């Protein structure tokens, strides 16, 4: 009986207890739900999004103004809105981070938060192919970059200087003693030859005839605004040419790789580095990955280096005294009789190096680096929402009033003096920063310094009737408009 009573009592107590707990839970959940909603609403009200530049043109937004003069557009926006602002173009919202401090967000971020594949792979995967660069998870691409970096070593650079000098002398034979020619076109053609020779090896270089050059041009046509805006399956003639060129170039590379593997010959070059390389888990690279990396190596340096070399030529042609000092430096460092170039002397051509550095400041070939915000990001106290394309512009950072003295002057000596920009980590970023930083910087310096050493020894350069090329903003990399230069063989 006692037990029964006890049981009933306990049962009642249990029931009461359960009801109390249930009621309390319902109350807590309800209060929780409403307070969460209230909190979220007030949090949303508290979130400060970057200032938005309004536009009255639906969908296109600021595309026309930006396309006409992107740097002017960004500089005006910086003046009006500060270092972080957003605007819309062709249905996409872009948030720019201008200046060294704001740019820190991009360079310190994780790829999972600010993602490169989301913005670049549509352009690069059809050109480089699957399994490399932005087609693979970033940790794999980082391993591929590490492998490529081991191939870009000093022993190889020493060979490259000789190869590039020989290619330059051979190529410019067609220019004769004097004339007026398209410098950008010449340097673009030369750089395919030098890059193929140095980065692909002698077998692939020896197959580089007009037909193969056309394949590279068709493949390169894949880097277009159309490819960036339209889905890759759209039957545009340029897309079809790109895809056909991709298949044919890969077939050429497969044959060379197979021949190298079968010959048992171990050459000392970058192709061999790739053939011998393994990922961290011990897996070797497949032929397809090697071929994709070879395409990537060539194209990553092609426009960047040819545009930079061409602009450098015009800066030197515009300032005859500087050009003469660069020539005098050749004699002072290498010897009065100007013997063939070598890697150690090239390193000591400091004035030439500063000219290149200054060219990369005023005309950095990559005008904007982009990432997709996959998680909300904070910069300058603003919250950048998921889905914004987050951008940093080397061109704008390289000429901000607050950072650079006489910002628009081409002055290679600024790096010798007290240079305020040196104190700001991301004021000078022609090669990017962080996990996506360029691996080709040293090769680019060697290539461009060797080409210009050779050219300065051959010719004196002048602007044609004082014309310094304006900037062509219609191409993805800002090239010189009407890049004709006047040249005359130098008397030794
Ligand atoms: C003047 C010459 C060059 C300039 C100005 C340049 C500039 C850049 C910049 C700004 C980036 C960063 C892109 C980003 O963060 O979105 C980059 C990345 C890269 N560059 Fe270069 N580059 C040059 C030459 C080269 C050459 C010659 C090679 C190869 C030999 C090369 C290979 C790469 C690679 C593999 C990346 C890594 C991309 C990533 O990790 O996302 N570049 N380059």
UniProtKB/TrEMBL annotation:
The keyword Signal is annotated on this UniProt entry: no
A Pfam family that the UniProt record links to this protein: p450
Domain of life: Eukaryota
Leading EC class: oxidoreductase
Matching InterPro entries: CYP450_sterol_14alpha_dmase, Cyt_P450, Cyt_P450_CS, Cyt_P450_E_grp-IV, Cyt_P450_sf
Tagged with keyword Iron: yes
Assigned keywords, A-Z: Cholesterol metabolism, Heme, Iron, Lipid metabolism, Membrane, Metal-binding, Monooxygenase, Oxidoreductase, Steroid metabolism, Sterol metabolism, Transmembrane, Transmembrane helix
Reactions it catalyzes: lanosterol + 3 reduced [NADPH--hemoprotein reductase] + 3 O2 = 4,4-dimethyl-5alpha-cholesta-8,14,24-trien-3beta-ol + formate + 3 oxidized [NADPH--hemoprotein reductase] + 4 H2O + 4 H(+); 24,25-dihydrolanosterol + reduced [NADPH--hemoprotein reductase] + O2 = 32-hydroxy-24,25-dihydrolanosterol + oxidized [NADPH--hemoprotein reductase] + H2O + H(+); lanosterol + reduced [NADPH--hemoprotein reductase] + O2 = 32-hydroxylanosterol + oxidized [NADPH--hemoprotein reductase] + H2O + H(+); 32-oxo-24,25-dihydrolanosterol + reduced [NADPH--hemoprotein reductase] + O2 = 4,4-dimethyl-8,14-cholestadien-3beta-ol + formate + oxidized [NADPH--hemoprotein reductase] + H2O + 2 H(+)
EC number(s) reported in the record: 1.14.14.154
Stretches assigned to coiled coil: none
Pathway of action: Steroid biosynthesis; zymosterol biosynthesis; zymosterol from lanosterol: step 1/6
Spans traversing the lipid bilayer: 17-35
Assigned protein family: Belongs to the cytochrome P450 family.
Protein name, per record: Lanosterol 14-alpha demethylase
């Amino acid at each position: 009986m006692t037990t029964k009573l006890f049981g009933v009592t306990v049962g009642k107590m249990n029931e009461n207890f359960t009801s109390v707990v249930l009621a309390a839970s319902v109350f807590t959940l309800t209060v929780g739900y409403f307070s969460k909603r209230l909190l979220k609403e007030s949090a949303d009200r508290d979130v400060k999004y970057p200032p938005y530049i309004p536009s009255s043109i639906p969908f296109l937004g600021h595309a026309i103004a930006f396309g006409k003069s992107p740097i002017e557009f960004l500089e005006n926006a910086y003046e009006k809105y500060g270092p972080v602002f957003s605007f819309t173009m062709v249905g996409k919202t872009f948030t720019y981070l201008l200046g060294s401090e704001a740019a820190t967000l991009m360079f310190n971020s994780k790829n999972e938060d600010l993602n490169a594949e989301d913005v670049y792979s549509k352009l690069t995967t059809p050109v480089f192919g699957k399994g490399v660069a932005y087609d693979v998870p970033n940790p794999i691409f980082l391993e591929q970059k590490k492998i490529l970096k081991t191939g870009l070593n000093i022993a190889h650079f020493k060979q490259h200087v000789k190869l590039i000098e020989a290619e330059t002398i051979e190529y410019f034979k067609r220019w004769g003693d004097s004339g007026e020619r398209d410098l950008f076109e010449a340097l673009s053609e030369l750089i395919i030859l030098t890059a193929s020779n140095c980065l692909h090896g002698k077998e692939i270089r020896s197959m580089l005839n007009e037909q193969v050059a056309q394949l590279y041009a068709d493949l390169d046509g894949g880097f277009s605004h159309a490819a960036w805006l339209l889905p890759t399956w759209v039957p545009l003639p340029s897309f079809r040419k790109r895809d056909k060129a991709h298949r044919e170039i890969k077939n050429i590379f497969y044959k060379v790789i197979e021949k190298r593997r079968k010959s048992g010959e171990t050459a000392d070059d970058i192709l061999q580095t790739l053939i011998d390389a393994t990922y961290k888990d011990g897996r070797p690279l497949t032929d397809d990955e090697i071929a994709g990396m070879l395409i990537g190596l060539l194209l990553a340096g092609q426009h960047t280096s040819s545009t930079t070399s061409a602009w450098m030529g015009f800066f030197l042609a515009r300032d005859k005294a500087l050009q003469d000092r660069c020539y005098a430096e050749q004699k002072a460092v290498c010897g009065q009789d100007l013997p063939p170039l070598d890697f150690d002397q090239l390193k000591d051509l400091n004035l030439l190096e500063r000219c290149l550095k200054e060219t990369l400041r005023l005309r950095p070939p990559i005008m904007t680096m982009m990432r997709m915000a996959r998680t909300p990001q904070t910069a300058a106290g603003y919250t950048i929402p998921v889905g914004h394309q987050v951008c940093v512009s080397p061109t704008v950072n390289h000429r901000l009033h607050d950072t650079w003295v006489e910002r628009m002057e081409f002055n290679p000596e600024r790096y010798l003096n007290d240079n305020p920009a040196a104190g700001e980590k991301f004021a000078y970023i022609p090669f990017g920063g962080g996990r996506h930083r360029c691996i080709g910087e040293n090769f680019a310096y060697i290539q461009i310094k060797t080409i210009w050493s050779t050219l300065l020894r051959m010719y004196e350069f002048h602007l044609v009737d004082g014309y310094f090329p304006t900037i062509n903003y219609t191409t993805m990399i800002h090239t010189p408009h009407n890049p004709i230069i006047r040249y005359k063989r130098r008397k030794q």
